[in-house]
Amino acid sequence: MVKNNNTVFLDGNRVSDLLSMEEVIEAVESAFKEYGEGKTQIPAKTYLFFDQYNGDYRSMLGYLEEEDVAGCKLVNVHPDNEDLPTVLATLLLIDPKTGYPFCLMDATELTSYRTGAAGAVATKYLSKKDSSTLGLIGSGVQAKKQFQAINEVRDISYVKIYDIDEEKRKELRDYIQNQGIEAIELEDAEEVTRGTDILVTTTPVREPIIKESWIEDGLHINAIGADAKGKQELEGEILKKSKIYVDQFEPAKHGGEINVPYSENLITEKDINGDIGELVTGKTKGRKEPNDVTIFDSTGLAVQDVATGWMIYNKANKPDNKNKEIQIFK
Fold first, then answer.
1. Active site residue: 3, 45, 73, 124, which one?
2. Is CATH 3.40.50.920 what the domain over 127-301 is classified as, yes or no?
3. Neighbours of 194 (CB within 10 A)
4. Taking Cα atoms as reference points, which of 310, 182, 181, 295 lies closest to residue 243?
5. Distance CA 237, CA 274 (A)
6. Residues β-bridged to residue 43
7. Fold (CATH) for 7-111+303-329
């Protein structure tokens, strides 16, 4: 696809029309592959913190060498939002050859899709292939996207849901059941964790809500919620007994699930088995034994956004879609 010398604006509705979980998983896995091959640039995120509002604002830059496309995502996390999403994002794509900004898009839903897709890629490489039971700790937007994505790579037949918000639990249960999959609400995180093949945590907590004593052999965990310093969903002892994989070590040690155990010297860099790029490229092996407990610590990489945004831009520029674009610069 040629990057045109005009800037296309894609609003949230257009982006939503162009998103498909299957295609996002493919784009994200391809980005992880390039990352594993050393064909990306991913500088550290930069943050503004608004402690008085319990929120932050982040910039995320990424470059994909094979596609020759770069981008910057600006994204917030405000867990106390009531009338707005807790995450709002904008993505700008540029042509590395000239620096021209050829696409600006609403990346709010893109962000939730690409995070779900990352969980699916990790699940594909780390969970048992016959996994069928999914546990969801947290029942917000990302829990739904994790379910959608994981169901693309594993044959899920039973879902257990826990959230302190009863209304959200019920809403997610009803959505899953409408997909023809059995789902049940539970009022205890332990019940969700035990007897589960794949566990996904998507909460903003700063005190662990998953106990080491609940963890059974063979479990795979996608730890999604911890995305800033001090956040922690899993007891540190769980990480000690598990095989840990990160998307990228530096951001994970500062703000991912490993950040608190790492800062307390409960685990070290030697306890990290590998990153998602190494898994996808085969440089490191994931699950070695059926009884292994595996953890994917997801903090989010800018190349996930760039790859997904590039896919959306290319779809928008297909002849049958071009009349729906809005060009804002020429």
1. 73
2. no
3. 16
4. 295
5. 19
6. none
7. ornithine cyclodeaminase, domain 1 (3.30.1780)
Contact 223, 123 (CB under 8 A): no
Q: Is 141 annotated as a binding residue?
A: yes
At residue 135, the pLDDT reads 98
Active site residue 229: no
Has 298 been labeled as part of a binding site?
A: yes
Does the annotation list 87 as a binding residue? no
Beta bridge partners of 94: 70, 101
Q: What is the pLDDT of residue 327?
A: 53
Domain boundaries, given as residue ranges, for the chain: 7-111+303-329, 127-301
Say if residue 225 carries a ligand binding annotation. yes
Provide the phi-psi class of 233: left if phi over 0, else alpha when psi is between -120 and 50, else beta. Answer: alpha
Per-run averaged pLDDT (10 residues), the chain, 330 residues: 77 96 98 98 94 95 98 95 93 96 97 98 98 97 97 98 96 98 96 98 95 98 92 97 96 95 96 97 93 97 98 88 52
What does residue 87 show for φ and ψ, rounded to 5 degrees? -125, 125
Backbone angles phi, psi at 329, to 5 degrees: -135, 150
- Is 194 marked as a binding-site residue? no
